[in-house]
Each structure stands twice: as C-alpha cells, then as structure tokens.
C-alpha cells in the first residue's frame, strides 16, 4: 500500500520557566522523542497511550500545528517542513483536524452554518456556493440542514461533534487527525460517531490518524496501532494482534487498566495499575528503557541501554530487549501484571 505520510525521527521538547525572579527554574518535558512511522494512504492508524504519552503532540506535529525540534515529515512525496507559509496554507485543504471537545472547538458567536462555511470562505468560495456546500455536509454527517441557523450551545455533544466533522470535511481533505474525538461523549454516542467516521472514511477514501487512550476502541476502529509511552514509540502492528497478544510489557499493563464489571478484585487491581502507569516512575540515571522503572519483567539490559524499535514478525515492531534475539536474556521469574479481560 502506498504511503501518504512518512515520519522519521520526530522529536519535540517543551521548556517551561517556573518560579520568581531569584528562584526561576526551567522544566524540560520531552513530549515526543525520535518517533518514526509511515501512515499508509486509505488506512486508519491508531495512536494509543496514557496521559502525557505525547500522542496528541505527535499528531499536531504531523499537521504542523506544532513545529518539531527535529525529524522529517514527508507528505505525498514532499518535505512538509520545507513548505512556505502560502504552501502550508494551501496544504490545510488536504489535512484537517477534529478536536476532542466538540463544543469548545466551535465558535459560540457564530451559527453552526457559519462555523462550517468558514474554511470554504477562507479559501475563496463565494457565499452562495458555500451555503450549498454546507447543506451537503450537514446531510453527509446525518444532520438536518434546516437547523443550521442555530448556535453550537443549542446542540448536544454528539451533534456538535458531527458539526465539527462537517467543518473538517468542508475543504475536501484527504487526511484527518482525530484527536480523541469520542472521549468527551457518552458511550452510546461514541458508537454513533465512530460508525459515522468509518462510513466517511470508506465513502470519501480518507486517511485517519486516530488518537485515543482506549485500546479497545482502537482495536475495533483502526487498521494498525502504534503504542506510545512518555514520548517514545514502543510497539506497532495490526490492531487485532496488538490487542490480543501485546509484545511490550507496557502494552500488556495498559490493557490491564481497562476496568470491567466482574465480581472479583479486577476493579481494584486495574485501578492500582492505572495509578502506577499515570504517575511518574522512579528516577533512573543513564541510558535505559523508558518503561524500565515501572516494568515488572525487565532484565538487566533494560537498565543499561535503550532498546530500538525492531521488527518482531508478521508486520509488527517492538522496542523491547525481550524480543531482541541478540540481546534478550532467558526469562526470569517476575510477577506479571494482569492483562485484564475486556467485557
């Protein structure tokens, strides 16, 4: 399958100054470190990880909403980072974003028709043609065009997300970055929005980068999955195998944080594990695996060097010494974390 986007060694570090005049300090956060992956044309690539894993920062760099510190982004055979200001503006027609909070992403002072029409007017379409296009987009996402004179606060969360999707589709893009588009919605509404996005992807031939913290949704919705932890890419592969037989210990533990209704201690175990995953791991000096401090299956090599992302068979890759045939040590007795059962 042809690659639409080729990403190599992408990195981003944020520096924030804290304190007063005499005790000012700089806090350095490495949001994304040396991430490389291809996004194939017409596929849905899922990016999953916990809070602070860098998945949203990664997606926004792919759109050049955030400028990377290092790395390359090759979009359709051209270096995206070399675009001029006008070239980047025109590129916005090809690549759009759907934000996490639908209500906050819409201008409350404009009607929903005006919100959806704004990208069209920005690119020179006349008002009448834009109005006709808005009606088409409303029908496309399952809304009544006769309600387009209303304001965003008059719609439900699910309807607002449909409006946000219509706005993203207005300039007829080929690539959408979906930044946790269903996490702010009720479960029943989530299914409706995901079904809509899947239908649009097939109908319009779109390519998606879908960010989520829910591996179950990613498995059902995405063709492939990339797993991130503290800015690092730890595992990639087709979504079903990554979910059913995760290779990296973090992915296995992350599955264990999914809570399910069972009359046993699974809720307590998962809650404790989720707290460990979200909290900062103990400090480790020198090169090491980014998950080594919290990993119950680490070997000595994990605390002395950082594993590279390497092929692991059947189109999968993993950054773990236990799957490196040259460096992996024999299995040692450790207490494996529960992988959890998805209800």
The amount of helix comes to 25-40%
Describe the sheet with the most strands. 8 strands, mixed
Percentage of β-strand residues: 15-25%
Average predicted local confidence, pLDDT:
86
The gross shape turns out to be globular
Q: Count the helices. How many?
A: 10
Report how far the terminal alpha carbons are from each other. 34 Å
Question: Tally of extended strands?
Answer: 12
Please state the structural category.
alpha/beta
- Helix-strand pattern: EEEHEEHEHHHEHEHEEHHHEE
Strands across the major sheet, in which order?
Answer: 6-7-8-3-9-10-12-11
Alpha-carbon Rg, integer: 22 Å
Uncertain ranges: 259-264, 266-272, 328-343
Care to give the gist of this entry?
With 343 residues, the chain is of the alpha/beta class. It contains ten helices and twelve strands. The chain is globular and about 65 Å long.
